[in-house]
Structures are given as structure tokens and as C-alpha cells.
Amino acid sequence: MAEMMKAVTIVDVGKAELREYPKPVPGKHEVLVHMKACALCTVDQRAFLGVTKNHLPSVQGHEGSGIVEAVGEDVHFIHVGDHVVLEREFCGVCHYCKENINQCTGRAERRKEFEAAWKPGELAKPIGGFESQMAQYLTIQENKLTVVDPAIPFERAAVTEPVSCVIHGVNRSRLATGEVAVIIGAGIMGLLHVQIAKLKGATVIMSEPDAARREKALAAGADFVVDPTAEDLKTFVEAHSYGRGGADVVFSTVPHSSLFEQGMGVLARAGRIVAYSSQHPDVPVSVSIGQIHSREIEIIGTMGSNREETYLATQLIARGYINTDLVIDHVLPAERCQEAFEKATTPGTYRVVMQME
Ligand SMILES: [Zn+2]
Ligand SMILES: [Zn+2]
Q: How far are the Cα atoms of 204, 217, 288, 308 from residue 198, in angstroms, in the given order?
């Protein structure tokens, strides 16, 4: 009989449990990863809450870390015992992959294929892909892994993916040394933005109504914090932007498009605003094209990260440049997955990480 393993499975809306699956065996060019930790991203939380139209049951998780337990045939560069994180899925063949643009259409097509082939009762997607890491074991091609410093605890390595996504957005914004950045929202993504923007040498203003979260932003390195419900954000930013009359870059990290509009209003001339967060619901906002024209404003989208950014994230975490403890609220064993999801979906919680052993 095949060896079995467990995986955290969302079996119904609001219900997660450990289910048994056959332990995978690595094929040619594949390695077997014993997953050690996986964080519960907003994407997983939305699947649990039924906010997104996921098929269920589903094994979620794309913020994992683990250790290589075995290697298949023709694996040369990854070794048993390596500590690893998975890279985002890229086909490597489509136009966007060839141009090194983070918009792989091959991945999107594969996702559609899974959805079309799905039958009730089956897993929404096979265990082992980038987006189903909440398992004890998974197999993956050796060239889709990043080896991490074994000194990094698995819980910290698990937040590589969110750090890499923030690096991607900051790279797209072209934030430069000495510029003024406004970050809207001191949730996990906001706090990571503070840290990456400070590493870039920017002055950072955090706009956040919650006092405890503003304290966290200061601990993350923000230069100024402001409560936009108590003070006029535009006036505050103008007063703290060293003659620019506004921010060079605004990062909108919250899923409320009205706050994106507020962010547009605090930009300096030639300012850039980054739509970091996905929007649920995606309520359109009005923008003045005349202002975009005359003030030379740029609106920048960002999603996910690429291979270099994943690697950089692991390097920054390993060297202690990113304080991951600030963004991890709870670490729970996978047996307590229901509680982990409930905690993660409680408003105000930063990351919850599950130990997968
Ligand atoms: Zn994530
Ligand atoms: Zn592609």
C-alpha cells in the first residue's frame, strides 16, 4: 500500500481539516520536499471564507518552506537536506516569460485546464504546485526551488513570498534613495513595504487609522505615522515631503479603492501610485485624466514576483534586514488548522503560520 501523508484541506466554506493523501514520489528532475511551515495568505483566507469562487475541497498555501528529503532521477543541483522555498509557477515558454514580464499566460491557461477538468469531490488542484503547499510532502522540479540559509527558521522562510511581492511592487515604482513614500495601511503588506522602502533609502510616511498598527509601523522603521481619520492626510504629507508638496510614491496596500483615490490626492508632481492590493469588491474609482496629464502622474499595477525577487527576499530575510517577527502573530501546528484559519481570518491579525510536520 502506498505511504500516506496529511495535508491541510479546506473541505467546505469555513471548515479546514487534515486529510490523508498518498505521499508523492519524486519523478525525473523532481525532488521530494518535506514541508515544515506554511503561512496563511489572504488568498487562502478568502478561499476559506468563500469570498473567492474556489472549488472545494482545496489544498491551499503558497507561502511555504521545507527541507529536501529525497531526489528523483537526474537531479543534480538540489541536494537532500537543502532548506528550500518554492518559486512561483512560470511556464517559461509564453511571450511574457520570454520577456521576463511577470504575467505568465501559460500558468493562467493551466489553471483554466484544472478548473475545466474538475469534478465534485475532487481536489481543486493537484498537491505539489506552487499554490498548494499546505501538505506534509510535495514533489517539484528542482529548478523551481530557491535554496535558503538553513539558519533561517522555517516560519520566517515561509514569508519569503509576501516579501518578494513587496520587492516587486517597490521595484516597479522605481522608488529611489531620498524620495518620499506614503504607505496606506499597516497590515502585513504595509509593514513589509515600510521595511523595503527604508532599505531603498526613502522617507516613509504610514497612513493608518489604528493606533496599535501605527506603533508597529514605527517599529518597522516608518519615519512618520498619521491617522487619516483624525488629520487631513494631504496636509500632513505636504508638511513632511521636503518641498515636493506631496509623495513621490504612494503604495496602496488595502483592498478599498476609495483609499486608492485618497492616495492619488497626496501625490507630488510626477508622482507614482502603486495598486498593490487586490480589490474585493473591485469598486471603480474616478481619476482625473487631466491631472494625470498635466501633473505627469503614473498609476502602476503590481502582482506577484519573479525569480530574482524571490531570491532577494530570502537573502534579505537571512541577513536580518526584514523583521519577520513583526508580521507573524501566531505559529500553530497543522493539526490545529481550523483554529489557524479562524485566527488568520479574524480582522486585525497579521500572519498565522502553520507548522506542517
Ligand atoms: Zn501570499
Ligand atoms: Zn509563461
A: 7, 12, 30, 20
Q: How far is the CA of 209 from the centre of ligand 2 (A)?
A: 40
Whether 273 and 341 map to the same domain: the answer is: no
Question: pLDDT, tens digit, for every residue of 56-105?
Answer: 999 999 999 999 999 999 999 999 999 999 998 899 999 999 999 999 99
Tell me which residue of 38, 27, 126 sits closest to 74, measured CA to CA.
Answer: 27
Task: Kindly give the interhelix angle for 307-318 and 160-173, rounded to the nearest 10 degrees.
Answer: 120
Q: How far is the CA of 171 from the centre of ligand 1 (A)?
A: 18
| pLDDT band of 351, cuts 50, 70, 90 | very high
* 303 CA from centroid of ligand 2 (Å): 15
Alpha-carbon gap, residue 14 to 244, rounded angstroms: 48
- Please give the backbone phi and psi of residue 266, each rounded to the nearest 5 degrees, phi first: -110, 10
Instruction: Report residue 163: phi and psi, to 5°.
Output: -60, -40
Question: How far, in Å, from the CA of 107 to the mean position of ligand 2?
Answer: 6
- Domain extent for 235: 169-301
Beta bridge partners of 257: none
Residue 38: enclosing H or E segment and its boundaries? strand 30-39
In a domain, 330, yes or no: yes
Task: Evaluate whether 326 touches 216 at the Cβ level (below 8 Å).
Answer: yes
